[in-house]
Automatic annotation (TrEMBL):
One of its GO terms (molecular function) is sequence-specific DNA binding. This is PiggyBac transposable element-derived protein domain-containing protein. InterPro entries: PGBD (IPR029526), PiggyBac_TE-derived (IPR052638). The lineage of its organism: Eukaryota, Metazoa, Ecdysozoa, Arthropoda, Hexapoda. It comes from the Eukaryota. Residues 23-135 form the PiggyBac transposable element-derived protein domain. It comes from Ignelater luminosus (Cucubano). It holds the Pfam family DDE_Tnp_1_7.
Length: 135
């Protein structure tokens, strides 16, 4: 048990590894509503659920999770890469879930960059992501 891990009681990723990996997977953020007091609770202006815990999720096309990482600011357990925070999330989740080559990943413009798309191609993953004009 790591004393700096505030989410150690709810780590479920070992159980998620029992799920068979399918060809199509998505990466997205998720919010668990929470209105109490906690150091890692987030406020996100303009969202339907404004207060809660933010999670990075890798799921299959049926919605079953393969890997979840809580967003804890600078202590998030995903490696920093040259592809920005979003790229770090996509690459980190794919690495932690041990995705085989050939899996197709889908994500939105929060995660996308041209460099990330090139890196995923180099690693042997299919990829689809929306891009912003200014990235």
């Amino acid at each position: 048990m790591d004393g700096s891990d505030t989410f150690y009681k709810v780590r479920l990723n070992d159980a998620f590894k029992q799920i068979d990996i399918v060809e199509h997977c998505s990466v997205d953020e998720s919010i668990i509503p929470y209105y109490g007091h906690h150091g890692t609770k987030k406020f996100i202006k303009g969202k339907p659920i404004r207060f809660g815990f933010k999670l990075w999720c890798l799921a299959n096309s049926g919605g079953l999770l393969y890997h979840v990482e809580p967003h804890c600011g600078s202590s998030t357990r995903l490696p920093e890469t040259t592809y920005g925070k979003g790229g770090s999330v996509v690459l980190g989740l794919a690495q932690h879930a041990n995705l085989p080559k050939g899996v197709k990943l889908y994500f939105d413009n929060l995660f996308s960059s041209v460099g990330l798309l090139d890196e995923l191609t180099r690693l042997g993953y299919g990829r689809t992501g929306s891009l912003r004009e200014n990235r």
